Every structure is written in structure tokens, then in C-alpha cells.
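*** Protein under study ***
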Amino acid sequence: MDNAFLPYGLQPQELIKSRIKGLISWQQQCLSNVDLIVIACNTASTYALEEARKHTHIPIIGVVPAVKPAALSSKTKHIALLATPATSNNAYTHKLIMDFTSGCKVETLHSTELVRIAEHFYWHNELDKEALCAEIARLNIPATVDRLVLGCTHFPLIAHDIKNCLQQHVELVESGKAIANRAVSLLGSQIVVGEKVPSASEVHFYATAPVIGSKEVISIINLNKD
């Protein structure tokens, strides 16, 4: 967890590239037996995925906005991407839209307020529903949009509440399951996506800055929870 550098969505591209390169270098020097790296951030992936792959032989999966499945499933052929400013405005994302949304109109929306709301909910289990709905209203999503791509890994944490704030029928689209399936495929693992991590497995958490209440944090992200 690179909590010393958050939020990535407000950082310049070259700084993010340098940061990701440094984290990969640290991993290669300090951690052995790593079979796969997942960059679990849309901004970091769209800015630095290609650069990161130049600096390691280990396969890297990036998390990028799921505009392709959204476009394929849209009935109105009008979709929206909701992400951080850095993700929604960069060249990698624009290329994804150009390559995979032919025949669709695409709205690009961004919000740092939703990141703040989701982050607070994650750490404190408290959701400011009034602020959330106000931010969704501010985005002014066109009524004909029927697919909303959650282009930030924070947003699925509050997906149910985002949907409750929407004033129209919109299906939310995110890439989590596809990323998990891709990881299992690359690892050649017999683990089934959605199953618990075996109790004998060792899970290590690393942070780049002190975390208040580390034991509580681990309980929040306990991979063996029902």
C-alpha cells in the first residue's frame, strides 16, 4: 500500500512513473518468489503500466477502465466513464475509448470527492450519503447513459450507494472480476475466483508510511472473511 504517495489521482504522470518504477525495484531487491504483480490503481496503470513492464521479468496486470465490456453491453450506445482527473484525461484512457467503444458515445467524468468519500468509508465504515448523492448530482450524467464505468478502484467500495444516488437506470461496470480471472490464468492456479484464501497461506501487507491501527487495518482487508 503506497499510502505515503496518495492520492495517485492528483499526481503528475512522470512522478507516478518514477514511483512505480521505484516500488518494482524495491520488490525485486527485497521480496523473493513473486510470480505476479497487480497494479491495483487505474491512475497508476494508465500512466505507468507500459513503463513498469520494462523493468521486470515478472508479469504485471494493470487495472484499466472497463470501457470495452460497457460498450458491448450498452443498449442505448451511450456510456460514461467515472474516474479521477488523471485517469479520465490521459492518453492511455483516450486510446482505450478510441479502440474499444466504436459506435458508442462516451462521457468522461471525474471526481476526487468520490475518492475522499470512499476512502473515509473504507477506514471508518462511515458513509456520508448526502455528500455522495450531491457529488453524483453534480456530475449531471445524461439520462440516456445506461452503463457507468467505475474507473477508480475506490469506487466499487461504494458502488451500491452510488447506484442508489442515480436518478436513472444505469448498470455499473468495473473490472475486478476480470482482473482476478486474469491473475488466476497467469498463475496457472487451481484457485477459483471468489473462494477463500487457504488458511495455511501467508499474507503479507506492506505500507510506505505508518498506518494507524495496523491490526485493525488487517482485519478490514482480511482475505478469509465470509
